[in-house]
Every structure is written in structure tokens, then in C-alpha cells.
Amino acid sequence: MVKRTTQEKLAILADAARYDASCASSGSVRRDSRDGKGLGSTGGTGICHAYAPDGRCISLLKILMTNFCIYDCAYCVNRVSSNTPRARFSVEEVVDLTLSFYRRNYIEGLFLSSGIIRSPDETMEQMVLIARTLREQHNFRGYIHLKTIPDAAPELIEEAGRHADRLSINVELPTDNAVKAYAPEKDPKTIRGAMGDVRKLREASRDKSYRGKRPARFAPAGQSTQMIVGADGANDATILGQANRLYSDYRLGRVYYSAFSPIPDSSAALPLIKPPLIREHRLYQADWLLRFYDFSVDEITGAAEGGNLDLEVDPKLAWALKNRAMFPVDVNRAEKSLLLRVPGFGTKTVGRILSTRRHRTIRYEDLVRMGANMKSARAFISAGGWSPRALTDSADLRARFAPGPQQLQLI
């Protein structure tokens, strides 16, 4: 194996970690100042941005412990058959890097994932040792997110949760058949079993003993999962339906959708489906509607053909355009559930509407001050001094929102 410096390992393993979702957008434009122009960089340094449970944006050192892997998942750039540069950090190197970045005020925590080396248990032991060393030997109080290996022994996952703020176990693909086809070494039942164990341990950590004493904290920021979209033929209805079940069954904090991009040197027989990042973005928007706006999967995906989301307009707007008979909504009289379905109205805006209309009639300009996106909302609401008249039913309403035609480049 080629002997590499810590800096070389960091470059390889930080780049390899970009496929692991950590609250950071995978659609960021790659910008850097290594050409001597400008200041700062969005990639290559191993630092990403995530959100703490209290909503704070924090910087994390985001790396793999190693990108060596004994598995041959067809969609993964780090699979055993992939021709990619390899590197491996020791436990001490990860600990030293984390503390060094933290002391320089570059980061506030660590996001650690890994390929599988030798066995799931050995890999998980090393990751747990990193977290334990940081917590117990160096009294590290920063945020730690560990990507957990579902095949590892339950006691290792339990110890990981005692040291990490958040655990995540990847479901990999939307359906069990897809996992079996493209990641044959992984078992969907084992993955779900590990997620269920994490949920039980989290719930048990909240229960007080008969003496009123609480047990040790376990993954206080919760658990999340990542789902690759576009590597198989699953439509958006299938993807969102699976996400909805995961939220319900395992009390997940978040499902992350990761758009699949074919790997240049791939010899795997994957379908020729390459969803643009806009599909990933629409799935996140639809996921938000499921969690906070009381939409169902059928409502969201029924606005377009084939069970897929409309890529030209956001899911709430697509639903409103298909259900124009429910509009316009009178903001001074409508129930909360209907106000939440108005395009351009968020939960905070609806809360302000409900609070304000108890005291006076809400006018169009009031909605602007409340933060409503009136460009989207104006065709679907009526208010004091405002009526959309024929705008709601106009034939060209969709064209007002859909992106216009673009000139293709000839060179």
C-alpha cells in the first residue's frame, strides 16, 4: 500500500465523504481559492456545515475513516472493485485532526463514516474508539455524528450512541429488491433491525428509574438515514412512501436523499437513470410537506404523471395548480389546515395570520410584511382589498411559475 501523508489522506477521505449526507446540500457549486484568486473553498478541506438540534448552523470535520471496503455495492465509488485512490486514517490521526481543527476554531464537531475493513465489527470498534477517545481522554464536548454499520454487534452500536450526538444507518435504496440487486452483501432486514434497536435505546434513555434517576444519554440528537435516488427505477411515490414509513417506524430526525450519479469507471449494470439535482431538491420539498404540512404521499405525487414529482414547479404549487377548485382561500376565514396548503405560505406565516386576524382584518400588504411569498400565493388567496378574480382559473397560470425556455449551447 502507498504510504501517504496525513494531508494526502485528508484530501482523499474528505473527498470520498462527500457522498455521505450530513445536513449539507450535495448540490453546492465547487469553488476554491487554490489558484491564488479569492478566499475560501467549498470543497477539498473536509469541512461541511450541518445543523444542531437547536437549529444552530455548525461546522463539522467530515471524513471517512477509510475508503477501503470489502463490499461491492454497484452504486458506490468506494466499492472493492472501484479503481479509486485509497487511504486509511488511524484512530490517533482522526482524534488529532479533530482536536487540531477544533482548537483553531475551524470546526465545532466531527462527522465520521467509513468503508468496511475486514469486518463490520472491526470497523465499528475503530469508530467507537475514536469517539470514546475524544470524549473520555480529551473531554471533547463538540458535536459527533457517527455513520453506524448495521451489521456490527448491537453492543458496539449501543456504545456508539453513548458517545455520539447523532447516529445514522443508511437504508441505501428505496426498496428491498433494489438493495438485493445492487448491494447483495447488505440485508434490508438487518438494516431495519439496527434502526429499530437505536430507536428502542433512545426511548429507554428518556425513562427515569424508580428513584427518578435518568440513564446515560443515547444519541440525543436522534438518528437519520440516507437513501440513494436514481440508482434503481423507483419512482418518487415509492421513495416518499418508504421515507414516510421510516419516519413513523423509527422516529427518524431526517431522511436524506442523495441523487445518484454514474461513476465514470463503473462496470456495473445499473439502469441509465441519472436524476438531476433538481429531483433531489423536489424530494426534500415534498418530504417537508409530509412532515410539517399534513400532505399525504398520494396528494404530493398525484400532481404529475407516473408517480413522479413535477420538476418544473415545487410540489405544493403543483398540487395547488391541480386542485384549483379549492381556491382562492380567504385568509381571514380559512382554517389552518387549508392555509398551510397555500403556495408561498410557510408555517410561520400561517401562525402570524392566525394570530393577527383575531384582532383585525388582514390585507394584502399585511401578508407581505408577514413574510409570505406573494408571487406564489397571490393567485390562490383573497384578503382585505385583494381578490385574484379570474387569475386562479387562467389558462396560463402554470406558465407564470414554470421556468422559461432556455437557449441550448452549441459548443
Strand order of the largest sheet: 1-2-3-4-5-6-7
Q: For the terminal residues, how far apart are their CA atoms? A: 43 Å
Number of helices: 15
Helix content: 25-40%
Under CATH, the topology of the domain at 6-26 and 42-219 can be stated as TIM Barrel
Q: Say what oligomer this is.
A: single chain
Secondary-structure arrangement, i.e. CATH architecture of the domain at 6-26 and 42-219: Alpha-Beta Barrel
The main sheet comes to: 7 strands, mixed
* Coarse structural class: alpha/beta
Spans where pLDDT lies below 50 across 5 or more residues: 24-34, 37-44, 264-268, 271-275
Sequence of secondary-structure elements: HEEHEHEHEHHEHEHHHEHHHHEH
The proportion of strand residues reads 5-15%
Radius of gyration: 24 Å
Could you please describe the fold and organization of this structure?
The protein is α/β, with parallel strands linked by helices and 411 residues long. Helix 2 packs parallel to helix 3, helix 4 (154-163) crosses helix 6 (188-205) and helix 7 crosses helix 8 (277-292). The protein starts with 5 loop residues before the first helix and ends in a 10-residue tail after the last helix. Helix 2 links the parallel strand 2 and strand 3 (109-113). Among the domains are: 6-26 and 42-219, Aldolase class I (TIM Barrel, Alpha-Beta Barrel); 315-401, no CATH class. The chain has helices at 6-16, 91-103, 120-137, 154-163, 176-182, 188-205, 236-250, 277-292, 297-301, 315-322, 336-339, 347-356, 364-369, 374-377, 397-401, and strands at 47-51, 57-64, 109-113, 143-147, 166-168, 223-229, 254-259, 329-330, 381-382. Helix content is 36%, strand content 10%. It is built from 15 helices and nine strands. The protein has a seven-stranded mixed sheet with strand order 1-2-3-4-5-6-7. A two-stranded parallel sheet has the order 8-9. The model is unreliable at 24-34, 37-44, 264-268 and 271-275 (pLDDT under 50). The radius of gyration is 24 Å and the shape is globular.
